[in-house]
Amino acid sequence: MDGRPQPTTVFRRRRLIMSLPEVGQTVPDFSLPHVNGGNIHHLSEIIPHNPTLIAFFKKSCATSRMTLPFVERLQQHYPALQLLGVSQDDVADTQALIEQTGIRFPILMDSDWKVSTEYDLFTVPSVFLLDKTGKVVRVNLGWNKEHYEALSHAVAQLLNVEPVTLVTDTDKVPAFRPG
């Protein structure tokens, strides 16, 4: 060594996952089992039929528990919307959450977080509205009453129907809550 500062080499691990899907991007395909077992759902087989909403959630997240009934309302108001819930919990916790919230849309299991990691999720709930080509039309992270109203309008526009009010004053939910 000659007393001069030695260059520092910085090694960075190459990231093999994409960043959080944004509006206009196509989401990664995935295959996940249904909470009740058996059926494996392939996103690429579902998307071409109708607009699709994917809602990632976790039982321990109070914001997820508060948001899921409004996601269910989207399904009730817009029956042509395909809706998939993606649980980051185990089967027992997921089934308990289904009973607590009364949700009836299909719930898929991502207990090992492989799909959540591929989507680079940093919060739940994370909700993605996709058109029939698989491109993201809207992303909602956490809870924001205005964003869920905008989501309802985006769904209505994709389905070419009149939008409905998703959240009313009688719901008594905060205007904002982080995930």
Gist of the model:
The chain is an alpha/beta fold and about 180 residues long. Helices cover about 30% and strands about 20% of the residues. The protein has 5 helices and 9 strands, in the order E-E-H-E-H-E-H-E-H-E-E-E-H-E.
The average pLDDT score comes to: 90
Shape: globular
Counted by DSSP, the helix tally is 5
Largest sheet: 5 strands, mixed
The fraction of residues in strands falls at 15-25%
Whole-angstrom Rg: 19 Å
Helix/strand class: alpha/beta
Low-confidence stretches: 1-17
Instruction: Find the count of extended strands (DSSP E, 2+ residues).
Output: 9
Relative helix content: 25-40%
Ends apart, CA distance between termini: 52 Å
Note the run of SSEs as H and E: EEHEHEHEHEEEHE
Q: Major sheet: order of its strands? A: 5-4-3-6-7
Note the topology.
Elements: E1 31-33, E2 40-42, H1 43-46, E3 52-57, H2 62-77, E4 82-87, H3 91-101, E5 107-109, H4 114-118, E6 126-130, E7 136-141, E8 143-144, H5 145-159, E9 176-177
Parallel strand pairs: 3-4, 4-5
Antiparallel strand pairs: 1-2, 3-6, 6-7, 8-9
Question: How is this structure best described in words?
Answer:
This protein is of the alpha/beta class and 179 residues long. Helix content is 28%, strand content 20%. The protein has helices at 43-46, 62-77, 91-101, 114-118, 145-159; strands spanning 31-33, 40-42, 52-57, 82-87, 107-109, 126-130, 136-141, 143-144, 176-177. Strands 5-4-3-6-7 form a five-stranded mixed sheet, with helices on one face. Strands 1-2 form a two-stranded antiparallel ribbon. Strands 8-9 form a two-stranded antiparallel sheet. The longest helix is centred in the middle third of the chain and has 16 residues, at 62-77. The chain is globular and about 35 Å long.
